[in-house]
Design brief:
Blueprint: E1 2-4, H1 18-27, E2 30-36, H2 43-52, E3 56-60, H3 72-85, E4 89-96, H4 104-121, E5 125-130, H5 133-143, E6 148-150, H6 157-165, E7 168-172, H7 182-190, E8 196-198, H8 220-231, H9 235-250
Parallel strand pairs: 1-2, 2-3, 3-4, 4-5, 5-6, 6-7, 7-8
């Protein structure tokens, strides 16, 4: 069985066939899907999605790309949801210094305040990190949380080591399947196996075998085939290891 540690199953791209997408994932052996929120207004949709589909579990947070419209009242809303719903993680949160027009200081404010909430509720975090690995690491060291997942990891091996030291797993998905992604594939092949989890980020980050189409959680086992080949592992061994890694972080009491 597989765990997709990052999938936006609630997204509008799945509105027409969400039932079929969820059913296809389960048929492919993906029995757990983590559905992260991106803004306070999105929390009910994530909750409803996870209530509808067996194996789907929520994370609640404010994504850095949604900080322009966020306000401090959303942080109180998040706190209320964390207290009431007890999700598997706080997320998707982080810093994005790639997208133009996003205020770095505003992003940091919401990121740090959400890290504090994760610490208060003793929850891991799902991190969005683009062109901001070192600033994210700096805030993680300063605030201190119970680990999490560096989603769509694309840093250096040295940065990977720093995340691992802080109790984080590193998320690998469709980007790794592209043959031109040589540096990322080398990381996927050489990082400690107990630090790796699998994800799709569906409907985004499509794997090479579907080109520019819509990604979906049912593709996770085929994405995993690439990682297994890169590491010279049987697919069953990778399934066992990646599932164990994800469960130890997101479901420590199970």
């Amino acid at each position: 069985m597989w765990i997709d540690t990052h999938c936006h199953l609630d997204a509008a791209e799945f509105a027409a066939d969400r039932d079929e997408v969820a059913a296809a994932a389960r048929a492919a052996g993906v029995d757990t899907i983590v559905v992260p929120a991106v803004e306070a207004a999105n929390f009910p949709a994530v909750q409803a999605c996870c209530a509808r589909y067996a194996g789907c579990v929520p994370a609640y947070g404010i994504h850095p790309m949604y900080t322009p419209q966020a306000h401090d009242g959303d942080l109180q809303t998040l706190r209320d949801w964390l207290a009431r719903e007890r999700p598997v993680a706080v997320g998707e949160i982080g810093l994005d210094f790639f997208v133009p027009g996003l205020d770095p200081d505003r992003q940091r404010h919401f990121f740090v305040e959400q890290l504090k909430l994760a610490r208060e509720f003793d929850l891991p975090v799902l991190l969005h990190v683009r062109r901001a690995v070192d600033p994210v690491l700096r805030e993680l060291r300063r605030v201190g949380v119970r680990g999490g997942i560096a989603h769509a990891f694309n840093g250096s091996s040295q940065q990977a080591g720093q995340f691992i030291e802080l109790g984080f797993k590193l998320g690998f998905g469709g980007a790794m399947t592209w043959s031109r992604a040589t540096r990322l594939r080398e990381l996927a092949a050489t990082l400690p196996l107990d630090a790796i989890v699998l994800e799709t980020d569906a409907p985004d980050i499509p794997p090479e075998f579907i080109g520019k189409g819509r990604n979906a959680p049912a593709f996770l086992p085929r994405i995993a085939e690439t990682l297994a080949a890169l590491r010279g592992l049987p697919l069953s061994a990778l399934a066992e290891a990646s599932t164990r890694n994800a469960r130890s972080l997101l479901f420590p009491e199970r």
